[in-house]
Design brief:
The protein is an alpha+beta fold. The protein has one domain: PPM-type phosphatase domain (Phosphatase 2c, domain 1, 4-Layer Sandwich). Helices cover 34% and strands 27% of the residues. It has 7 helices and 11 strands. A hairpin with a 7-residue loop joins strand 2 and strand 3. 44% of the residues are buried.
Length: 244
C-alpha cells in the first residue's frame, strides 16, 4: 500500500506559483505521482506545468490498460507520455505571443509491482530513501550539472554557481525532447521524495533525509517551511510517497 503527501507553496518572492503536482488516490488502478516546475514570462510557466501534468497523466491512464505490463512497455509508456506532453506544451506556446518560450520540468513516478518507473526532464529531482540511505535517482539537466560532469567545477562549487538555474533540457521548449526514463525498486518502507528546485536550492539532501524519515505526513510542510525560513526565493513543491 502506498501513502502519499504533498505541499506546494508560492515562496516568499514570486508573484505566482508556477509549480504543479498530482498524486493518485490510493485506490486508483494506476499509481501516479507527478511534479512540474514551469518557467516563462507572464503566466506561461503556470500554464506549461499544469498542461504538462494533465496531458502526461491522461496519456498514461488512457494507454496503461492496453500495454503489456513488463518493464520495457511501462518505460516506453512514460517516455511517450512525456513526448506527447512536450508536443502539446510546445504547440500551445506558439499560439500566443505572451506564452512564447514557456516550458517546464517534469517528474513522473509510476508505482507498479514494487517498482518505481521514473520519467525525468529538467532540474526538479527524485530521491529514494531506503533504510539509512538517501540517493538522488535523477541527474539535473542543467548547465552547471554538465560542468560538474565534465570535471570543470566541483559539486560544492555547483551549489553557489551564478548560472545554476540555466536548463539544458526542459519540456515544451523544442519540438522534440528526450526525457530520462528508468526503473528502480520500491520495496516495503522505501520512501520517494519528488521536489522542485525551490527546495533543493535551500535545503540539502541530508536534511531532506532526516525530515522525510521522521514523519512522512508532516515532511512536505516541514520542508517547505525550512526553505521559506531560508529565503523562499522560488516556488517550493514536495511530494513524498512511502511503500507501507
Amino acid at each position: 500500500m502506498i501513502k502519499a503527501y504533498a505541499k506546494s507553496d508560492i515562496g516568499k518572492v514570486r508573484e505566482i506559483n508556477q509549480d504543479s503536482y498530482y498524486i493518485s488516490d490510493s485506490i486508483d488502478e494506476v499509481q501516479l505521482y507527478m511534479l512540474a516546475d514551469g518557467m516563462g514570462g507572464y503566466n506561461g510557466g503556470e500554464i506549461a506545468s499544469k498542461l504538462a501534468i494533465q496531458t502526461a497523466k491522461s496519456y498514461i491512464e488512457n494507454n496503461f490498460k492496453q500495454i503489456e505490463k513488463d518493464k520495457d512497455s511501462i518505460i516506453q509508456l512514460l517516455a511517450s507520455s512525456m513526448e506527447y506532453a512536450n508536443m502539446i506544451v510546445f504547440e500551445k506556446s506558439k499560439e500566443n505571443k505572451e506564452l512564447e518560450g514557456m516550458g517546464t520540468t517534469l517528474e513522473i513516478c509510476l508505482i507498479y509491482n514494487n517498482k518505481a518507473f521514473i520519467g525525468h526532464i529538467g532540474d526538479s529531482r527524485i530521491y529514494r530513501i531506503r533504510k539509512e540511505f538517501i540517493r538522488k535517482l535523477t541527474q539535473d539537466h542543467s548547465y552547471v550539472q554538465k560542468l560538474v560532469k565534465d570535471g570543470k567545477i566541483t559539486q560544492e562549487e555547483a551549489v553557489h554557481h551564478p548560472q545554476k538555474n540555466m536548463l539544458m533540457k526542459a519540456l515544451g521548449c523544442n519540438a522534440f525532447v528526450e526525457p530520462d526514463v528508468m526503473v528502480k525498486g520500491f520495496l516495503k518502507d522505501d520512501i520517494i521524495v519528488i521536489n522542485s528546485d525551490g527546495l533543493t536550492n535551500l535545503v540539502d539532501q541530508e536534511e531532506i533525509f532526516k525530515i522525510a524519515k521522521k514523519n512522512i505526513e508532516q515532511a512536505p510542510k516541514e520542508l517547505v517551511k525550512l526553505a521559506n525560513d531560508r529565503g523562499g526565493y522560488d516556488n517550493i513543491t514536495v511530494v513524498i510517497i512511502k511503500n507501507i
